[in-house]
Amino acid sequence: MRTFLHGCLLWCVLSGTPAWGGAPAEPLVSPEVQLCLQHLKPAERERAAKALGPLEELPLYRVQLEVDPETRGVKGRVQVEVLARKHPLTELYLRLTPNAQGRRVTLSDAKLGGRPVKLERPEPTLYRLSLESEPVPPGAAAVLDVAVEGLVPRAAAPSSGAAGGLLGGLMGGGGGRPSGGDHGAFSATADFISLVGVVPQVPPVGEDGRPWEGPQGIGDLGLYEPAHVLATITVPTGWAVHATGVPMGEVPERDGRVRYAFAAAAVRDFPLFVSRGYASSTATVNGVTVESHYAAADQAAGERVLKYATSMLAEFERRLGPLPYTHFRVVQAPLSGGAGGMEFPGLVTIATQLYRGAAGASELLGGGMQGMEDLEAMLGMLGQSGGGGGGVLGQLNGAMERTLEFTVAHEVAHQYFAGLVGSDPILEPVVDESLAQYAALLYLEWKHGKKVAESVRQETLVGQYHLYRMTGGKDGRADRPTGHFADEMEYGALVYGKAPLLHHASRKLVGDAAFLKALRAYVDMYRFKWTCKDCFTKELAKASPANASALERLRTRWWREAKGDEDLGKPRLESLLGGFEGLEGLEALQSLPGMDLEALQGMQGFEAFQEIDAQSKELLEQLIPGLMGE
Known about the structure:
single chain, alpha+beta, eight-stranded mixed β-sheet, 21 helices, 20 strands, 37% helix, globular, disordered N terminus
């Protein structure tokens, strides 16, 4: 294996190549592409070629990186080979998303066919190479080689109080007004380094010839044309690498480090992560190797995540069609800013907080975690003790486990939307996020029944919108670019909360059979392609022609208009606390006259409430009128 890797993969990265070379006389598949194609199921290669054209003509990235966890440094080289298909190539763009938060990664020593070239930097995250003096003719490929070097920032520490603590999560996922950022996509802790975006990639180009927009500080970072990747990543002994693709081996180096290799085919992104002290569990579903990678201390949760992921893949493949890849990985990651997970082709991350929270709320209360004092005070107001596994704590444990399961379902659904069915996550985030969110609800219904799915719909989608409205947020158009939202809370309420309910309304209109038929047809139609904002509505209209006009009116109402209050009603305590029915103290809280907090003085726990920090107290003062239905 070592001889093979050094003789093939490393040669691919380091060998000199011409600036552009003519296409072969016959359609031959190179050894490099053959390595990459191992990532596709044999039966899926023909379907991919039907959608994308000859697979040997896709862009090819050759990646060689070294990571030093002690210094948080990453360096190496990336070579990208892009074929000019129908028209000559006169320019080439590279997107480097970590630089949206400051210049964290630099590109230098650029060469085109071994000749030095100068890269322009028109935007913080965008590099450009002009080829106008020597355009690459159709049938030939531009081969650009660049040095990459970056310093990974330390991960942000969890915030305290209601805005970032446990109380904020209980009240719908945030509580405050989170600022923009990358949610830890490019960050480092003592035992985990997230290197999302460190590999510069060619962005899609619009009809005007301009590259698609880069990250805006809210929402996802980007998505790319399907491409092949051959990558080697070197790390110190004791560290492991997680990436998309087929693992090609681990090679011990003479200096004591270990070189990991991966080959990926027809992927829209290539994420990289480095961990220490992780364990893994593996299962197989329909020819897909499913891996769960997690901190060794969180093994129980990591194994449950594996069970969830395998069950979800089986259900989605049965109803939406097969996924094309032979490997799928779920990686525990210390995400920040309220993110529950991140999606990439063939790999997703799930926030560490969800692994730890699902272990049991009673353990969390004894663990000294930030926000626990706030929760203790709130439990006191509801007439609950702070210990033991019954009452609110028992139900809280179940709710947190449902959150973990729902989050995994959402990220697995992203393998279809927009991993397989591509859409613009910056200009049109509502397209893939709404379908991933609703597909996760469908899975819960298939697996646990309609009652459970409806409960999660109320607490996760409706509740998120209600919380946003109660804290002063205004309803608005969900169908807009990520950069047009004021903050993450508005984005979450409208794109993750309200927008997915279009699909719920459409399903009620056309019926289950027509809805699922259209969803499957939509996936089949746009596999490996780019979809549009009304493409799924058109598939629904094909499945239910009599409702075509009504379906378009629904899309306008839920995505373009501000009718959320009319459609979802006034906020109520039940929509925020979901499955916490029958708790002692809720009836008393709901029956309070008016919104004067002085009326709470006779309730158990009010003295503790008075001791809550100012930020948490202010949040509760804003919430209580809404909780009472005022």
